[in-house]
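Bench notes, bay 3.
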Amino acid sequence: METSRFVYETLESFGAGLELSRPTETSVLARLVGENPGRTIAIRADMDALPVQEETGLPFASENEGVAHACGHDGHIAILLGTAKVLGELREHVNGEVRFVFQHAEELPYGGAEELVEAGVVDGADSVIGLHLAASLEVGKVGISSGAVLAAPDRFEIVVEGAGGHAGWPHLTVDPMAVAAQVVTNLQHVVSRNTDARDAAIVSVTKIVGGTAFNVIPDKAEMEGTMRAFDEEVREKIPKLMERVVKGVADAHGASFSFEYYRGPDPVVNDEEVARVVEETARELFGEEAVEAPAPTMGGEDFSAYQRVAPTVFFLVGTQNEEKGITHPNHHPSFDIDEDTLPIGVKMFVHATMKLLGAESRTRTEAKGG
């Protein structure tokens, strides 16, 4: 709430003909309508934090216990605010409309993008662009490619129920912790032995909870994790295989189980033509050597919700700088960004947006014989 209030008030201070609204309680939308009609381009920045205790030791470190912008979202906010200020000052040169979308809840299991799509934030948009600050790239580098770039981040919950008792007499119990350990091990076979090696997929158990004391075997063990894939057929197949494995292990040891599977956002797939424009922008601004085409990764992003409405592109801006000691990965307690990356992000957004607005203008002029 505090972050969205800050964003709203900062945009308000710009003036520049920005029309402000709050599509949801913790999101902000700013519309810049140019002097002449034309295309509509939406630019998105996510702005939520993570449940991480910051350990950067910086003077501006998070003051909220157990909450930190450990994924660069504060940088995304700064970049989009800077973009709004610059384009607002260039309003007389804007043909069409630019929407600055400050999105909430990207880090939550399904994300806030879906809510903004349902609220009509990108209705009528000709394209939607977004970026992410990437610790995997050196500062000064821009990563852009077409096609699938991020996987679908699905989530699962497993509960193994046994019969608890004294740790000294395990033969009188059905130990759910031992069963859970077997479940974790056997789930790895779903990818390694039950799916084609050419189909990228991951099954990761990331949380196990059970027990209250060193000498007590509990009644149940709870697990949570994620399955990542690009292909829809694989995404449909793997949960069934997972449940079969859990059932087989539980039955073999006389335990019972529950298995819940939740589909997350779809894979993020970059539109070829919009990606070409963004890549061209990066090469013109920073030179050939600054542009990289990163391979698809198993990270997930709810940015994919926007691609159901309009062609989209999601690109990376490097923030790693070994000389400054900025090397920790996204989501690490000591994650930091090289602030030299901020103007790079602003330039990318400003110039790519003007290119995308102008592309249709040129097409319409040519169609009229101008």
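Next record in the batch:
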Amino acid sequence: MPVPLPSAETVNLVPPDAAETQLITDAVASAVAARDGLLPVQRALMEALFPAMTGHPVTLTDRPAVSAREFAVALERRDLGFRSRMLQAMLLCALVRHPLPDDVADSVAVYASEMGVQDGMVDVARKFAAGSLGLAAFDFTRNGYEGTWNEQEASAALHSSRVLHDAWEFSVADPALAARWAALEALPPDTLGRKVWELYQARGFTFPGTPGSAPPLLAQHDWVHVLADYGTTVEAEVEVFGLIARANDDMHAFSLLAMVISLFETGYLATGAGLFEASPGHLSASPDMAVRLADAMRRGALCHDCETGSDSIDFLRMDWFAVADRTCADVRARFRILPKSEAAVAAGSVGPWEPGGISPFQMNAGRQLAAARGLPYEAHGASV
């Protein structure tokens, strides 16, 4: 029987203190540890994530197990949003396991049930554990962020000349859309739009609306690369989607982070977002990646639209052209995108124009694009 949600009079909306943060850590560790215990990548993720999100240190050494019922009872005054975030922490720490044991997927499902939280990613985890990768990919579409797609509203925000029926639908023959992106070149050098145009030129990216381009929805995240100061390597993609997923209070957005983990850590998904292809092992390659992802999620959680007053921001459905002519600093201030932590920078998080912020493949593509146009290659400060 799930623990009931609190009333408006009894709900606890205060951020977790040190004791509750440690309890959360103990419960997540209990939920996602298989019979052989936690994997190093799980340990690194928890040791980075919970301090980043709460400001309190945690330990995983000699800690007691916390059952699903005990945890749900401890959260009896926490609302559905808080409980959902706890489940997502469990899912994140479970989905980095490859293979994902049945007992871990089942364990997370039990914690979800006791907390009274429903999330389609629980079914995804169970299908991953069962080896039903095709069905899991279908569940991403049905139960995740893609399932919230409103084709009329989204197509308008993306400035598509035609209705896009699916979230990751390509648009390779839309001259008006391509012209809108190309016009960013004419903006002043310190504007967000101009910086996005430079990002595309340096990396040989193709504007939406033209052959070889990414889906218009996926192209939305390129603005976040510039705005949040993340490079364009695979590791930086994990950071960008960590920020995007956490900035959105619609719990379906978590599937975006689950998607990139399933692409770039475990390889459970062969493809995603219409363009990405699996490239496993990037999160577990170094504990530094856990620090970088945790900080990206922290930054996302603290985002706030100072013009609308909303704490929930869907960066993928933002009309970026409406703010393209504003400076990067101005748009960062609007959305309260805070600087990276010192720990994340020390762990290797770099911006688009810093060394390591571009891949050799992307730089070569930029050179080829410039050559095809008969122009000298300009990296705009980016370097491998």
